[in-house]
């Protein structure tokens, strides 16, 4: 018996699949390091069902274990205990475990060079006839592939051996295979010219789906797992170099919802941001629900925490232009933003570290985080371009630009831009990496913020790009006073804050 990490114990089962390798190194008294034991692990989903151990006369050294369909990952203690129970094998120390994953695909070429897809191959008899009657090859690396059709995954092609084929952007899972199949069938149902797993030889990449609409090519990538930033950018740029518009769709299960309209996004999730300055959005898809979801009007409060509309649509009712449809121009979660901003002031007093450069900056300027003016940390157009939390980057801009200015003194836009760029250069303000946005007008958040002070009467433009300070921004002396001023601030400027987040601000 072997114990799985979830606590399940082994029983018999008939589930078997492809061989994968897990390498181990053990202390042993063997004089022949080439001796090997083969252990077949038979598993179904996350529960171990049974084991079968072939006889190995005289072997006292185990170098490799060849596993059958390792759906379950066993913890080191359980594996070591199990190996210790094997007759004639000593496993004093388990040094490493490494799992190598192969590529799976739905499209391959047959011996005559014709493309064959498995998305519509539903019967076992047809699959068996295909297996016996033809040979198949990867369109990308030209190595031979075989048809696999078990009880777990949908039928697919797989390389006979793990190799260096890197045309796909990620290892396949059932979730990914099912997702791109459904997206492909959806496009075909709309009478578009769509190709599943289209290999593009000029760039040696395989798109999940290539679709041609009005002579324009689109590469649709349904991404279920994180890939390195350089790979994402490289694939995107390669498509664009061929005149192909990339559309990256994130697996819906990757989006972490905190509460209504509030989400936590990883750095990788931000790569999928698309849309214009006034309508940043991320498209996700769940093949199990058959549902497209769009996070619209994404408004980051901090590097991870964002506010957004979440709009759902069944795949059958969705249209391809919906990928590019602009969201509404109203900001519906200003109240949530305000509460988060108030919470930041309250919590920062207790959690601020004197070693933190930002809080050092506040203290040098004799400002407490608890009484940082409510004019600092507001939603503005283009805020998604900045990785640094809104409260922090706006505090730098406010203190550099206005805090020391008295009424009647002058201020220029060039000064603000120069100061903003210096903060970026020093690392105080970090820009966000957004490879899908064609235009990254990184000065837009700054321009929007300056415009807010102009519209609220703090500054007045007397010549293009030049302003005169009309009144100082007050800094509260106590937290209770700050709460009162904060309440009045949002009462007076609610409509302006909602409208200003729509971008396109000019002087």
Account of the 3D structure:
The protein is of the alpha+beta class and 507 residues long. The chain folds into 4 domains: 1-100, no CATH class; 102-165, no CATH class; 172-329, Trna Endonuclease, Chain: A, domain 1, CATH 3.40.1350; 334-500, no CATH class. It has 11 helices and 22 strands. Strands 11-12-13-14-17-18-19-16-15 form a 9-stranded mixed sheet. A 6-stranded antiparallel sheet has the order 5-10-9-8-6-7. It has a 3-stranded antiparallel sheet with strand order 20-22-21. The longest helix is centred in the C-terminal third of the chain and has 22 residues, at 479-500. The model is unreliable at 1-102 and 503-507 (pLDDT under 50).
Number of distinct helices: 11
The main pleated sheet reads as: 9 strands, mixed
Percent of residues in beta strands: 15-25%
- Counting helices, strands and paired strands, the structural category is alpha+beta
The best one-word shape is: elongated
In oligomeric terms, what are we looking at? single chain
Number of strands: 22
Radius of gyration: 29 Å
Main-sheet strand order equals 11-12-13-14-17-18-19-16-15
Query: Ranges with pLDDT <50 over ≥5 residues?
Result: 1-102, 503-507
End-to-end gap: 75 Å
What portion of residues is helical? 25-40%
Averaging pLDDT over every residue, what do you get? 76
Number of domains: 4
């Amino acid at each position: 018996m072997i114990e799985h990490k979830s606590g399940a114990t082994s029983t018999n089962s008939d589930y078997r699949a492809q061989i994968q390798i897990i390498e181990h190194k053990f202390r042993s008294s063997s004089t022949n390091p080439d001796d090997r034991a083969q252990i077949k692990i038979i598993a179904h989903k996350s529960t171990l069902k049974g084991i079968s151990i072939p006889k190995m006369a005289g072997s006292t050294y185990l170098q490799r274990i060849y596993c059958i369909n390792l759906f379950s990952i066993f913890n080191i203690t359980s594996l070591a205990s199990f190996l210790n129970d094997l007759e004639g094998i000593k496993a004093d120390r388990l040094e490493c475990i490494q799992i190598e994953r192969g590529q799976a695909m739905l499209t391959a070429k047959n011996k005559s060079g014709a493309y064959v897809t498995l998305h519509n191959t539903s019967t076992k008899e047809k699959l068996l006839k295909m297996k016996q009657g033809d040979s198949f090859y990867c369109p990308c690396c030209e190595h031979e592939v075989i048809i696999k059709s078990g009880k777990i995954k949908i039928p697919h092609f797989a390389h006979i051996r793990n190799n260096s084929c890197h045309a796909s952007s990620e290892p396949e899972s059932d979730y990914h295979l099912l997702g791109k199949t459904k997206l492909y069938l959806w496009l075909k149902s709309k009478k578009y010219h769509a190709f599943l797993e289209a290999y593009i030889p000029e760039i040696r990449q395989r798109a999940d789906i290539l679709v041609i609409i009005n002579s324009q090519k689109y590469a649709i990538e349904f991404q279920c797992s994180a890939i390195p930033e350089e790979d994402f950018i490289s694939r995107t740029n390669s498509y664009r170099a061929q005149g192909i518009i990339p559309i990256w769709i994130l697996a819906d299960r990757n989006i972490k919802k905190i509460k209504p309209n509030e989400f936590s996004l990883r750095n990788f999730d931000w790569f999928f941001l698309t849309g214009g300055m006034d309508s940043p959005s991320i498209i996700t898809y769940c093949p199990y629900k058959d549902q497209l979801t769009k996070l619209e009007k994404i408004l980051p409060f901090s590097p991870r925490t964002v506010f957004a509309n979440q709009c759902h649509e069944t795949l059958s009712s969705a249209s391809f232009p919906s990928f590019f449809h602009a969201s509404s121009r109203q900001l519906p979660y200003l109240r949530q933003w305000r509460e988060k901003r108030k919470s930041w002031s309250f919590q920062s007093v207790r959690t601020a570290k004197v070693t933190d450069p930002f809080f050092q900056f506040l203290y040098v300027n004799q400002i407490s985080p608890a009484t940082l003016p409510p004019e600092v940390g507001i939603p503005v157009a283009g805020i998604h371009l900045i990785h640094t939390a809104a409260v922090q980057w706006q505090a730098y801009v406010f203190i550099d630009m206005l805090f020391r200015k008295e009424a009647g003194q002058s201020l220029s836009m060039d000064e603000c831009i120069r100061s903003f760029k210096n903060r970026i250069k020093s690392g105080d303000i970090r820009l966000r990496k957004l490879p899908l946005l064609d235009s990254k007008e990184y000065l837009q958040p700054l321009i929007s913020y300056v415009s807010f002070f102009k519209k609220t009467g703090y500054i007045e433009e007397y010549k293009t790009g030049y302003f005169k300070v009309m009144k100082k921004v007050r800094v509260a002396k106590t937290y209770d006073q700050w709460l009162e001023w904060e309440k009045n601030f949002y009462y007076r400027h609610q409509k302006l804050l909602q409208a200003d987040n729509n971008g396109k601000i000019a002087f």
